[in-house]
# Entry
Amino acid sequence: LEVSCVGRSLGNDVSKALIARRPELQDSYLTEIGSIVSAACLAHDLGNPPFGHSGERAISTFFSEGKGMSLKGQLTPSQWEDLTHFEGNANAFRLLTHQFEGRRQGGFVLTYSTLASIVKYPFSSSLAGTKSKFGFFVSEEESFQKIATELGLTLLNEHPLKYARHPLVYLVEAADDICYQMMDIEDAYKLKILTTEETKELLMTYFSEERQEHLRKTFLIVNDVNEQIAYLRSSVIGLLIRECTRVFLDHEQEILSGTFEGSLIKRIAERPAAAYKHSVEVSINKIYRSRDVLDIELAGFRIISTLLELMIDAVTSPEKAYSKLLIDRVSSQYNINSPVLYERIQAVLDYISGMTDVFALDLYRKINGNSLPAV
# Structure
């Protein structure tokens, strides 16, 4: 929700500036940029499996290092790349566009601009590289091609498929970059991972000495520490929105032509850029590597791996009694009985990646016999 709000602000600010530059576009759909970016922001993480990046790694390594390796010979090279580089972004695009069993054609039926705006990496899994980032699975390649052609995205490579980003991707990405960094710092403060002074110092460094002095004067009026942190966080978000808007407008032609490199946040002014870089370093060292976070990731890895192992075994050997029980547990919207192996595997991934952390843990306990439904 926070990412969506920031995305709407970015989109509206960019829209106003572009219309001021070209008043003849006043009656065009350019005024809807804020709505498009906001919707894309709401949707961009829908494909993330339980336990976030740990869940993504658990799925990828099940096929690249675990028991799923035995399936390699039964799949095409492109299908195998999809599985060994499983990616939440590509899964979000699938979730939004795929026709699940009993559902209407076109998935969520979002506009092409909204769909294109969530695809941060508009290329196939064979170009994912070591970062395992890509935009669409083999099964959705045709859908993305249709959208890209209709919107006039620049085709950079045909085999394997690669396009230049849709311009609004940069605003969705910026909203995400701004929010996860700022919200994680505030959350870390609330969880006592960061002290009050550490948090204030981190957020203050985004501003000039003059602005810092003004903020300190505000603290004399608002003396509740939690309110002070929230005020600082919102002030930083406002600053980063203005900076990212400026970068987008300064590089409009490069963005439209598909030649802009990197993200907007990497081109902001020197002072906030240094503060942002320091925030990232602190987050990595103190927040994401804290024992509580790592313990959850370890547990999540184990849960996802176990569910995958059992479910993949069930769809590859559906004649087994236990397999039938597991298959019956899956919602009818997933094509779990498809005659095509890759589609059955995708149905399993659709099922598991659609779970919340709590649901996945509950199912894991039930399958392992650690808990039973109330009788």
